Amino acid sequence: MTDSRFKGVLVPALTPFTPALDPDRDAWLAHCRWLLAEGADGLAIFGTTSEANSLGIEERIELLDFLVDAGIDPARLMPGTGTCALADTVKLTAHAARRGAGGVLLLPPFYYKAVNDDGLFAAVAEVIERVGDAALRVYLYHIPPVAVVGYPVALVERLVTAYPETVVGIKDSSGDWSNTRAILDAVPQIAVFPGSEIFLLDGLRAGGAGCITASGNVNPAGIRAVYENWRGPNAERLQARITEIRKVIQAFPAIPALKAITAAFTGSRDWKITRPPLEALSEAEARRLLDALSAIGFSMADNRACHAA
Amino acid sequence: MTDSRFKGVLVPALTPFTPALDPDRDAWLAHCRWLLAEGADGLAIFGTTSEANSLGIEERIELLDFLVDAGIDPARLMPGTGTCALADTVKLTAHAARRGAGGVLLLPPFYYKAVNDDGLFAAVAEVIERVGDAALRVYLYHIPPVAVVGYPVALVERLVTAYPETVVGIKDSSGDWSNTRAILDAVPQIAVFPGSEIFLLDGLRAGGAGCITASGNVNPAGIRAVYENWRGPNAERLQARITEIRKVIQAFPAIPALKAITAAFTGSRDWKITRPPLEALSEAEARRLLDALSAIGFSMADNRACHAA
Fold it and tell me: What is the ipTM of this complex?
């Protein structure tokens, strides 16, 4: 792992599946390359949006190897490595560090509920100690709407204090700007990424590092434009546009919606496939989504051209 | 796997850890043998109480192999095999079937929230189809207070209808008797196990199969006595006693409490160790728990003698 921290727009890359529900490696590689070409600063592969929690431990290891062996710069990768189980989290995290990943995005152990900060601190500390790699860079992944278990601000502060060289950032997918704000106030020295581009401009103005956002899978260039121009005269207008697009998408189940859009952009129907327990959008839902995006002038033609390139 | 369904008292066996946080195999084997000797009808190893969700996939495979190789009858085992990820659930379930487990206890994929019955049905169906073992017997594991995602009654009915030879039971750890009652009414042909002995007698009278209960780790003989005598004149009295003991225990965090009691019973302090994110009871808490059990005359001396045997 390198010492340079992530900043900018990171995308939790979608994972395409074949009709047999196996990861479609070639389509995945093409998508990752397209995202980077469109300006994504990094790929948070194996995030929630990636359906990583529906991927087996060995599948994740093999997929990371595949991507790095295919020539994707590992310094641009922030794989999700947090699982319920200490042993599996250590295995995935150590492997990511060994392959040179720029960082890992670490869910807390999320099966047991009502655990307290001491237990969660011990869980993260144990992972860092067992991996024992000075190059490891951990970005905490706070997503209570899905994982239920999260990282309270006081715990974030405690982890950063205990491991200042290792715990260098956080993705805040609470959807609660006041929480992001509280993190920025408590630990301004780490890279704070809101989990939605809706908070991108506000985050940057408050000292945030960018965003890590699901809809970056379909609108990377638009979101990147806000990051590039956030101090400029067009910042508000650019932000309003990406917020408008995001709001159309998030009226639908997020992952199936992003896959339906990607299927339309790439012309590959298989992109709609999700692994159970998630379900693909119905034809009617997908049509409604695409019509809603067309209605606000979101350009698929441009994106399709880029994706094929 | 054999064709005989589980019934009676099953125990989600605790998993002891060494100070280095590795599973302590010898202590585990001794505990499993003691539970069976005390009358447990089966061992639901790798349950929530077993901290199975803190064990890695490979750890679970190796531990099951160890137990069966050590001579524990696999027909008495109902290992938990449900994980978030399709690939891992298939791997664990196929391995359990291959080793002759009497059944598996299957959590639904529990990371993604707000999934609907169609998606959960597809997830379970996919596991059954991929394992493709006619001897597989699935017991659904409904524990919404922890896993959040559960099996609604309509989904249970649908799975039993689709796979009548395979989906043969359920553990209902909702803690809601009306839900257990609704399952018994909807699918009387399957083995319904409340997840607490508090509902044992009510469950048996309503057609239930017994119970699968955490506190069976420390009170297996007492709970078994209710099962053996439920039609007899002492049933209510015996039930009241096990309920009394359970209520003392469940005033504390369940898993650390059961480990503290087992540490006291066996005289082995290491039994108190939990894996993060769980934390052992403090000395003061453990003392308070043990005093409360003494106050109701719960006999540690008897249990200690049995455990050492």
Answer: 0.94
Gap between the Cα atoms of B85 and B108, Å rounded: 10
CB neighbour burial string for A76-95, b if at least 16 within 10 angstroms, e if fewer: bbbbbbbbbbbbbbbbbbbb
Which token pair is B272? 């108190």
Going by the DSSP 8-state scheme, the letter that residue B234 receives in this structure is T
The rounded distance, in Å, linking the Cα atoms of B163 and B101 is 18
Sign of torsion over alpha carbons A271, A273, A279, A282: positive
Residue A289: inside a domain, yes or no?
A: no
Give dist(CA B181, CA B205) in Å, integer.
11
CATH code of the domain in which B128 resides: 3.20.20.70
Which residues lie closer than 8 Å to B22 by C-beta, 6 or more apart? Answer: none
Phi then psi dihedrals of residue B141, to 5 deg: -115, 105
Token pair recorded at residue B89: 């659930």
Question: Quick one: closest CA in B to A121, which residue?
Answer: B277
**Is position A285 within any domain?**
no
Asked if the model's pLDDT at residue B38 lies above 50, the reply is yes
**Of B274, B243, B292, B289, which Cα lies nearest the Cα of B50?**
B274
Contact A91 B56 (CB under 8 A): yes
Amino acid present at A269: R
Return the structure tokens found at B36: 């069976």
Count of structural domains within chain B = 1
**Edge-to-edge strands, sheet with A167-172:** A104-106, A138-142, A167-172, A191-194
pTM of the model: 0.96
Beta bridge partners of B257: none
Cβ neighbours for A267, distance < 8 A, ≥ 6 positions apart: A304
Kindly report, residue by residue over B164-214, the tens digit of the pLDDT. Answer: 999 999 999 999 999 999 999 999 999 999 999 999 999 999 999 999 999
Does the beta carbon of A20 lie under 8 angstroms from any beta carbon of chain B? no
* Portion 148-177 of B in contact with A at CB < 8 A: 148-149
Q: Is B112 close to A56, i.e. CB distance below 8 A? A: no
Domain coverage including residue B222: 8-232
| Residue B213 to residue A58: CA distance in whole angstroms | 32
3-state secondary structure of B116: coil
Residue A291 lies in a domain: no
What token pair was written down for A81? 């490595």
- Say if B19 falls within a structural domain: yes
Is A84 in CB contact (< 8 Å) with chain B? yes
| A117 contact B CB<8A | no
